[in-house]
């Protein structure tokens, strides 16, 4: 099971047939190197497409519609479709909230023609992961009803304020859906409410899923293998372009700070987040975050104040999202002819294997392909630009 | 058996459970920082302390790794091991010779940096950029390390400058990246309190220390920053300060408790304005403070 965690473990034979042909065409003899190379190139390509659309739906509200019908017991994913899905979702949820810290996710199961909401829209990923962890023993029954699932998600999403970005992500193992009515009406309603619906199919193309994604500006993909599955899930981590009907507004938020206890001990108090929980965690604590509006106490941020409704965040929570809006400029691929002898960032010496190097259009420094990917996927700050007084704020002005 | 065993260059990372520690020291050498404008000779003292610290780190374990960077006014660069091949340095074959090499290379390369640009003086040291470079360097070492080896990495920033909000975005990006990559950021403030870098220490589980007096710099480096993060829990170290994470509004850079956030770009403002100055979005009039969204039909 551990092999799914290893990013190098691509199952080329099953999924990437086309890539395989391309590898054979390579006449350099460095087979392994060229496979990695191709993965990197694919990453660069996707990165290049990302830039441009500036208006993004940052305050995301996403319902995960999870197929828990009989089809999920299939073993074409190891050990089963369901177990594999749950494992990937766990990583996905963590990454999602890392990149979308003030967004919310809810989870709905589709099983035996019914839909069941197992997790309300919320921003705490640990809660969702806990709910998911109980699912591996669930009985996989009957057929899913896509329409019931969508309707249930829609009824919650409808209630959100107009600046909230609304999304549904369907994970569909079944090739059929058992619906009580005409699903095209549901799709029409989703479209009207500006709900973007994406579908990840685990088996083969289903017409109604294609229709759903197309009509609502979502993405529809069928997985090739577990690595491709993870890839597709992670594409959902980036905030989508803002829907046309998405309203912009200024939202009032609270930035609580921990009270300074100068010498004296803070009194033990109950936090609002655990006040009605029956678990061990619900204890009296000193310290915590206080809502600046009503002084309710919370032990974790971000959270929506239960008493007065103010969204409570810390400034770094917001800052985690800024890179979506102010990305580092894409580097330009140029043929290597000794422009420099070392990668500006990681100090790798350029050698004969480096046919291409990557040039930042702003600071004009040269980078290796690994740094190009690291900078644009993870760091989001160009090391060349950020060390130069002329360019260190360039991401803000572009 | 001898008591002192000189480590041998060839015996590196043979066993799989061997843990190696890398420290990347970022020395703020920007002549524009207040401390150095007041008394430029302080830099020599800092460099000597850092070299002694670096050698103590290398002495702790034969496999330990070291890099030293200079964050200068116009750029940042690695001064140890130095850019590219250093063919002029004789192959070192014992640990003691490594120590002299650290001193020699560091001082030689730093001298180059210091003499290279003296024309313009910028007050602000671009430390976020230097940390970004260090993270790329660390990420390469992690990628290319032998399979099964563990490389624990930390970055130690030694600086006399002050933080400025103009690097806020870059700082946050490097802090979150370091957190993700399990890189600890330690900060040794020589002259002024650094609230942003203090947040970085808090986010990455590093230590923040403002040294009470510069004379004792080496002692502070050795006592506070030399122990590896897992060992630190057992030591009596300066108690962690509460970190102020309040937001500063984009309009006045004032710390606020309640503010307004643009739903498009997440800029923070201290009061309602009809247009976002960051992304130029025009807002509709303020919504009622009501929280529970009522069912509202669009026209
Ligand atoms: Zn609590
Ligand atoms: Zn409140
Ligand atoms: Zn590089
Ligand atoms: Zn650049
Ligand atoms: Zn303001
Ligand atoms: Zn804005």
Task: Walk me through this protein's architecture.
The complex is a heterodimer of chains A (398) and B (299). By secondary structure, chain A is an alpha/beta fold. Helices cover 33% and strands 17% of the residues of chain A. Chain A contains 14 helices and 14 strands. In chain A, the strands form 4 sheets. Chain A has a 6-stranded mixed beta sheet, with helices on both faces. In chain A, strands 7-11-10 form a 3-stranded mixed beta sheet, with no helix packed on it. In chain A, β4, α7 and β5 form a beta-alpha-beta unit. In chain A, α4 packs antiparallel against α5 and α4 packs parallel to α9. The two termini of chain A are 44 Å apart. The N terminus of chain A is likely disordered. By secondary structure, chain B is α/β, with parallel strands linked by helices. Chain B has 2 domains: 214 residues, von Willebrand factor, type A domain (Rossmann fold, 3-Layer(aba) Sandwich); 43 residues, no CATH class. Helix content of chain B is 33%, strand content 17%. In chain B, the strands form 3 sheets. In chain B, strands 3-2-1-4-5-6 form a 6-stranded mixed beta sheet, with helices on both faces. Chain B starts with 18 loop residues before the first strand and ends in a 30-residue tail after the last strand. The interface between A and B is large, with 72 and 75 residues. β7 of chain A pairs antiparallel with β9 of chain B, so a sheet runs across the interface. One zinc ion binds next to loops of chain B.
Q: Which distinct ligands sit in these coordinates?
A: zinc ion
Provide the succession of SSEs of chain A.
HHHEHEEHHEHEHEHEEEEEHHEEEHHH
Silhouette of chain A: globular
Structural class of chain B: alpha/beta
